[in-house]
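Sequence in, structure out. Go.
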Amino acid sequence: MRFISSVLLMLTLLGACAPMAMFASSSGHGYSGLKTDWGTFVAHGNVNALCLTPALRLLIWDFEGHFGQKVVMNSGFRTPWHNASVGGAAASYHTRCMAADFYIPGVEKQRLIAYAMRNSLVGGLGCYPGQRFIHVDVRDRPRGRNQPVTFSGC
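Output:
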């Protein structure tokens, strides 16, 4: 009896830790034709979603859980050569597996930005005019700052 109680308690605790992202939907026309890379929807074949730090993966799951939809990554990890070829900053967090550019089909970009601004997991936020995606990274925020570091149109 004690063993069964222990197993039930352990399953209950593990179940409580399951991220809400597990229940995020990927149905609808916004996902048709998209491929996945390591369990993440990607906008094109040049996206590398393998190298994401645990903090960045948690941040992505947080967005998916909040909006109830899976993200579509436009850019993840970049080699220094790829980063230079797309005009990325020399010290880009993409080259350290700490940044992702993504959108969520059916969710307005302004809603993503608003959520990122109040999300304590977001260290940096980029909002590129004319693009459907936002940039998030998991850098440490400067001391005393309660919003992410913002750049590029935010």
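Check: The chain has one domain: 2-151. The mean pLDDT is 88.
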